[in-house]
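Sample A.
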Amino acid sequence: MKRSFAPQTITTDFLNSLRSQTDLLGDQVIASIIASGKEKQINEILMNLVRNDSFQKGMFASLGAETSAMMDTYIEESGKLPPWADGALIKKGEKLFELYGPEVFMLLNVSSLPMCYCCGNGAQVLFDTGRLMAPNGNTDPLARRLMETAQMIVNVLSPGGLGVNGRGIITLQKVRLIHASIRYFLKHQQIPWDSAKLGEPINQEDLAGTLMSFGPVILSGLKKLGVKFSDEDAAAYMHCWNVAGHMLGINETLLPDTYEQGFELASKILSHQAQPSEAGKALTSSCITFINYVIPGNAFDSLPSYLMWYFLQDFSKSSQKDLASCIGVSSQADMKDKLVLRLTHFVTETLSIVESHDILVRKVASTFNKLLLQGIIHYYNGGKGVQFFIPPSLEAGWGLTNQWRDTLSTPAILGHRISFQSKIENIKTQP
């Protein structure tokens, strides 16, 4: 039986204590690999996990008997579902993802990740690892990190992802070791990580906050998009991420039982950690740049920052922090009228300046989320050296099958149509 979540225990002192706590199992594995003199083999271990959808003993035999045995033990121990995992709830949570996958991916980029960037200390980890930044206009480092996050969500929430030897299980085991690797190398770099000021890298509070960005933050965004789901659906979705959180080494006391409890935990963490930071602003800017890069043309260029501002508002209120200003997307309310004029010919429903922000976002999102997901798939699977996998059943359900292989044109608008070229470099009009 899972330990019941107790909101009253989430105090400032408790959150402060979490910043010195990490993941003992993952840290022990990485420290042992380093101590055995096989530091350079860490990437090989991670790539073995990436390439394999299941685990067999001996798959790390090439690394030597000691490392192979240690990895066998890690995979066996970290791959066990918690005793309270409920298969029926997991299937119900998977169904919600099946129905609203494109919306989930949009919210990941314009709500979940920006919310993580609001926490200055946690954002510094991402910034310092250099895995999210896109130097000299090169989007590949950012693209790879965003792909890893998106792929984790697909693998966890696809049918069977959290089953025995499921694709989601292997992914979570890999992510757990990536976290431990980052912690080790940040603390052993030339200028060591300032744990006294920033907390341990990827500590329990940061892990819990990130997990909330995948659970209640996504559910909150779906509600704002007008999606109707029951309390049972929300509980099932939360259960999926509770199982994932357990397998990432997150303490059970930080796994909320309900959407409302998750919203409260996210708000308390934001209240404790949200602050303006150059790291958070830089990461947000890179995320916006990447979104605009994969969506053809420039018609939607102002939309990502507007959506970030919009989806942060409820959590700004609950945390009593101006979250948008923390990441440099404040004062976006005045963009609404400009967006209406710019996007009115590109969405499937009529837009009006007098409509509320809620109605505008709901109308625009149905077009934007599909463009974004199609652009991401094409980018990752278009010769970039990484492959973004979505199960065929989900591709078909989301209307993505056979998209982007040939030029796709819209119906004529004032004698012109919008042509989406296969290279996703621009939107141009054609007579």
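Sample B, a different protein:
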Amino acid sequence: MPFNINELSQRIHFPLLLFLDYDGTLADFSPNPDIIQPDKEIIEILTTLKLHEQISLGIISGRKLDNLMKLIPIPGIILAGTYGIEIRMPDGSIIHRKSFNNYRPTLETIKSKWKNLLRDLNGFYLEDKGWSLAIHAQDANDLDAEQVLTAARMGAEDQLNKKIFQVLPGTKFLEICPLAADKGKCVEFLLRKNSHPNNSIIYFGDDDKDEKAFSVVQAKDGIAVRVGMDLLSKGKEDFRLKNPQAVRNWLKSLISSLK
């Protein structure tokens, strides 16, 4: 998959639908997902892109929507949190693609179990996104992380209706969230609302959650761009960029081409 920025740029046309993940794509990963540190350069780039009448911009993140709005305090663009189950539209309206009350009681039960499990343990962080719960174990040693996350998963699965919930594992990570929290389904939803169906579409993302959006975008003759150098990835992308700084550089080159 090419890294050539010029070759990627030659594949797009206008009007353009531009979708971007945040962590690992626009920005390096934060040590704590509840620490909100807006990045001036990202805000400047996205603000400039948003002002161009031929570009529609959307950020689709695993972060909860409230945190995403603090990270990106820019009106008039799509912000989709918790893998796209909660969305702020360009007009400022908030859309929940499912009913919050159908999920929260189960999550409260699991939260209580997980808090008890993690009590007095070092290196673990319990994140409550409202729509989902996640345990981050990056600061724990490998053995403790494996044992605790296994116990957390087993304790949660007894409470889950598998028809509406999913378990998202990761490296020293575990999350419980609605099945509807899916970046691919989010993109499908946003494309149905798109008033310009002939737009060129491009999606930037760095992990398996973004791959679900890749396939949706590619089915519409759009472009999927993976960010990162993980050689074990499945190669579902059309292009690769090395890291978030490479994404920012490409976005800056896009801005320059529009002047």
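Observation for Sample B: Residues 5-97+181-257 form a domain with the Rossmann fold fold (CATH 3.40.50.1000).
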